[in-house]
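Sample A.
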Amino acid sequence: MEAAGTTRAEWRVTGMDCGSCAAKVQGAVERLPGVSQVEVALMAERLRLVLARDGTTPDEVERAVRAVGFGISAPEAPAERVAGRFVLPGEAVAPAAAPAAPAEEKRATLPGWARSRKAQMVAATGGLLALAWGIALTVGGPAAEAGFVLATLAGVAPVARRALAMARARMPFTIEMLMTIAALGALAIGAQGEAAVVVFLFALGELLEGLAAGRARDGIRALAALKPATARLVVGPRIREVAAESLAPGHVLQIRPGDRVAADGVVISGRSGVDQSAVTGESMPVAKGPGDEVLAGSVNADAELRLRVLRAAGESAIDRILRLVEEAESARAPVERFIDRFSRWYMPAVVGTAALVAVLPPLLLGAGWEVWIYRALALLLIGCPCALVISVPAAVASALSAGARQGLLMKGGAVLEAAAGTELVAFDKTGTLTAGRPQVTALEPFGTDGKTLLRMAAAVEQGASHPLGRAILEEAEAAGLALPQAAEAGATPGRGAHALVEGLRWTVGSPRLAMEAGCLGEAAATRAAALETEGSTVVAVFAPDRLLGLIALRDEPRADAAAAIAELKRMGVRTVMLTGDNLRTGRAMAERLGLPCRAGLLPGEKVAQMQALAAQSRVLMVGDGINDAPALAAAQVGIAMGSGTDVALETADGALLRDRVADVPALLRLSRATMAVIRQNVALALGLKAVFLATTVAGMTGLWIAVLADTGATVLVTANALRLLRARPGGD
């Protein structure tokens, strides 16, 4: 929340290709009066900050960013929409966007990179260099030297302008400044031809960096493209094509076969297979009928569906996934924060070393000034940390995008790094290892009949959200029972629910709770123990003075749970099940799945268990994201099941959108692969720097090789990171 007298502002910044670029944007605006909380997201191309009311204006922020060579614009505002109600016939509905004009289409025939300023600079410097070489080969002499000088000055002029702008912003140690010094220094010592080549290679390298960074952003852009721009809105007897941003809860949409769904909705008519692979990674179409929810970005495969919109524009599952991926840069990995700190003193150290290389050999050893100044200039170019700084965010962005496409959501590089080191996975039982859809398997009345037992239990559980309560209600509905009114309803987390029904305070809770109330006799306790030994969860229905009976419910394990736990063991990761069920029920389920069990845990006890485990091992906790929130928070990494629900995305460090236990080892594989790529990138960046530093000081390589060492390393580490975009950790 912003302080009084301040406002939060956001812009889209273009032209950022590496971590150094993001640092330049941040440095340019941080110095402005009244600016605070500056956040620059490289892959999301986003600038956020807080402005004091009497300080810098938004226009001044934009001028500061443009001064250091980057494009900036306000983010597009969402289309105006009619919210919270139906659009009736005759009311205004936002029309679909008009198609692009032919002239606009013609201008857009060139790819984006070819129309960029960097491409124009490469063409200009390359043309001047070719002209200079032509003069050198045909005329030679002073005319050729003048041609190289002209090519160098024309190419270095915009670089020098950016260097001076950043120096005024108190950022003297930039690649632009180093490039300017190197090019002008080469001219000063008579290396005109090499200076022109260096300027051209620098421009070419910047273009390649931009292409690589744009490719890294394609994963995020692909997510944004999943939602169609228009939707077919049912308005009375008519169907209108409207802008997707105008949709609001309650609208009814027609989804034809082959159409992509524009908003989260619930099917009100029709049955069809729906391809959700783009959103959840589910490989096969899922059958949908009345009452089933369909996510935005899914594709209708077979027959027409009518959907009632559930969430407003900007709040669908795909929108929330997109926001999570874009904002994940703020949760940076510890290794990334270390590299940022390292780069702050790395470049000044390189500049100091280059200065010593330029002056010490001539002064102390009588060596030639031109030779050592030349080597010092090459050393300046080698010293740029662009490759090192981009090595981590490029890998993280690629991994997050690849994971999101397969239903694996993680909130940033810090989560990826922590998950990669997981030694123990702790699973909740109900809704995690099991499907969370228990069914009533036995009614054991005491002093009454089964219908009365079920009727009273269902009356207490009216409005219940817990899976056991819902199962009791479904059983009562299937039996056609009329439920009495309940009042003063309440619940004791992890133990049971209670309500005032027909003048008595009835409780539906664990046998242990009934025993503590003095209502569970020996015969009932024996029967409850027998049912639990069979793997059922047992609840007792009782009033303060008597036991009405027992209800047994069973929740089957997910089809992939046992295989996933076996896969984790093969990966060297230990597992444990934490459950609020009694020991017999928990142990029966754990034995079926092949993992140890800690049972009978109340919510507070589950947190204590998690804290004890986390003190001994690096623990990843998997739960349903709602009642397991405290335990998820106590783990090093908390992962929620739940098809992208609000709670799952907000309370945990990540979510498994496909509700598959098999996605837990997939998430760990992706995290480990990401950390492996980061280690490769850091080794590649530093290794190339070390090799070319040594060869440059030894006089084996020159200026143009130094430029290739910098830009080439940046392109290599980015390309290596892009391999993660093709990662299929789930194997499907």
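Sample B, a different protein:
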Amino acid sequence: MKPSPSPVLTPRLGGHILVDQLIAHGVEHVFCVPGESYLAVLDGLHDAAIKVTVCRQEGGAAIMADAHGKLTNQPGICMVTRGPGASNAMAGVHIAHQDSTPMILFVGQIDRAMRERDAFQEMDYRAVFGTQAKWVTEIDQIERIPEIVSRAFHIATSGRPGPVVIALPEDMLTEQASVADAPRYEVVETAPTGQQMTELGQQLARAKKPIAILGGSRWSEQASQQFAEFAERYQLPVAVQFRRQMLCSTDHPTFVGDVGLGSNPELMQYIRDADLILLVGGRMSEIASQSYTLLDIPVPAQYLIHIHPDGSELNRVYRADLAINVSPASFANAVAQLQPAQAPAWSGLTQALRASHIAWRNPDKIQNPGALQMGQVMHYLEATLPDDAIMCNGAGNYATWLHRFHQFKRYGTQLAPTSGSMGYGLPAAVGAKRIEPDRTVVCFAGDGCFMMHGQEFATAVQYQLPIVVILIDNGMYGTIRMHQERHYPERISATALQNPDFSAYAQAFGGHGERVETTEQFGPAFERAVASGKPAILHCIIDPETITPTTTLQKIRQQALASKA
């Protein structure tokens, strides 16, 4: 049989070839700040069936791309200009690296003939991004655009997902070439061996006090459900790592909490005393491991079964007794076939740990200083929000209220940086609402956190994205102030903030804004925000003493002074 004749290829601009590769790989959204260094790409996007979100700062655009990657498991696409634009985008690249999020950042570059002269906005992108991206490259030959873009999609999604950075010389983008488009990328999956699954079943049968800890990326809604069914059959207690709470429903009968900041002490003690840990997808890095103290290094005291899609991560920090180099989705599909030979001996322990978690997450017993009670705010939101609402946040003590008391019941409902990056919540919410316009999207932000990417509220208004921002204002960088009081009591330095009227800020951009000072005001204000159909900010004033759900600045200060006495 003769091969089919090759299609007749017509010359295209490099910028247009690049856009056509994105279409070939299934891209539907691009987040960008425009720049003269990649005008030919912008021209290619003019007629393309791709939604372009024009952002106000490159860090916000990169965070929106990261949010896309988290929600879809497909690379989020970000485009920025050279030099300062690339520098601003670094924040999002770092988040994608630490959070194992697939992302591709396209950066405009100087003409090839100008290299190494310190030309206008020139940067060595391989050097600048080399430690934070899975791959950094520059397309020197227009004919190689399909090859390199295809490789970028495969690298961003394979093993431990992460960011790829591609520099685009301006003169290359304006050349013409006749080249074929690459076929759509496919994520390569592997499966556990029969011997590994047999060993897993045998170790579970021997265990007296096991626990599963879920984390990382390369999950799916189906995988989450498959693992939940496996855990229920085995009555296996399931915890989730820091800011990976959407991996297991809080309603699941064996879900016992999260392993991160401010976690339930009873859960932490259970993990220390466990005889088997099933670590699925995560790296158990600093926050989840309680600064690398929860498990012994390099050999944990517990029998460790570690499942991770990147072979270089296995045995890197923790020597596993059984290391399985597969994705969480592949592993969840495999354990869907496992059945316990007899009733697990630990079911009573699971029920007790579950009861402890339910008591720990109950906001009704929490009383904090001031007229606005955050426990009651959380209670209202739990009673009001749909189960598929997407909850977004950046970094700061305010996020504790969301992480501890919100009940994540569905996969794909959490956007939060495990890297602890401030400013993440607002652009993530904008990106999420752009991708999922029919779902409720709520952003939690502190006053300091919000102002780091507050300009992206204009992006929400421009695209008519009715997100609701719950902005918790205590007039300071609260987390740093907390640490100051703990280590240098009564020596406040560089943590106070003078803030604008954020409700007026929202209105100035064309959104809905209200000031909330009491618990009673919150519910009606939230309802009006939703009913407005506009992007909204609820400027919530809390007492500065309300630093966590369990303590105050005064108590922290007194404890620190007493220890120094």
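Observation for Sample B: The chain has a mean pLDDT of 95.
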